[in-house]
């Protein structure tokens, strides 16, 4: 049995700033976000990418993105684990979350926020991007028997897909 683990970081889709009475945590997806999230779900499904464990920030825009991704890929919405601690999480908090994932999980999706996801992607898989735009997918593999073994620079980039710049397999 392969001991490879796959982590897919997904930045929430584009959110709106139209209602100044809403807190940052409560901002919903805007029209572009509502268009991009289903498109990225379609691309994930077309590449045969499905999680067996799915966690997301509980901020509204991340929650809405995760639900759209689940609907578009057939992942049970009730099985998404929403975590408040992923909102405004720094890189070390995200890394701690990853290292505490259950070892039965081989493929994990994490929906969160910038700049933390960009920093985490670069920390784990080397410098690949200056910015993960909204609804970007950054998928990487680790040769690790346990999530506890995930270390800086140990990730191998598999896919870096964005709504405006689709991934081209080489």
TrEMBL record:
- What CDD domains is this protein classified in? HP_PGM_like
Q: Name one Pfam family in it.
A: His_Phos_1
- SUPFAM superfamilies for this protein: Phosphoglycerate mutase-like
User: Per its UniProt record, what InterPro entries does this chain match?
Assistant: His_Pase_superF_clade-1, His_PPase_superfam
Q: What is this protein called?
A: Phosphohistidine phosphatase
Q: Which organism is it from?
A: Halovibrio salipaludis
Q: What does the organism's lineage look like at the top? A: Bacteria, Pseudomonadati, Pseudomonadota, Gammaproteobacteria, Oceanospirillales
């Amino acid at each position: 049995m392969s001991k490879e683990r796959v982590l897919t970081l997904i930045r929430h889709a584009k959110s709106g700033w139209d209602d100044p009475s809403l807190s940052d945590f409560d901002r919903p997806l805007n029209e572009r976000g509502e268009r991009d999230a289903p498109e990225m779900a379609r691309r994930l499904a077309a590449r045969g990418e499905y999680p067996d464990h799915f966690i997301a920030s509980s901020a509204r825009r991340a929650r809405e993105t995760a639900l759209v991704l689940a609907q578009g890929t057939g992942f049970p919405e009730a099985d998404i684990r929403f975590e408040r601690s992923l909102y405004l999480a720094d890189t070390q908090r995200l890394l701690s979350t990853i290292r505490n994932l259950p070892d039965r999980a081989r493929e994990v999706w994490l929906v969160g926020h910038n700049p933390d996801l960009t920093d985490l992607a670069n920390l784990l898989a080397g410098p690949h991007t200056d910015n993960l735009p909204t609804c970007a997918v950054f998928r990487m593999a680790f040769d690790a028997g346990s999530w506890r073994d995930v270390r800086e620079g140990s990730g191998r980039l598999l896919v870096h897909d964005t709504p405006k710049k689709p991934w081209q397999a080489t």
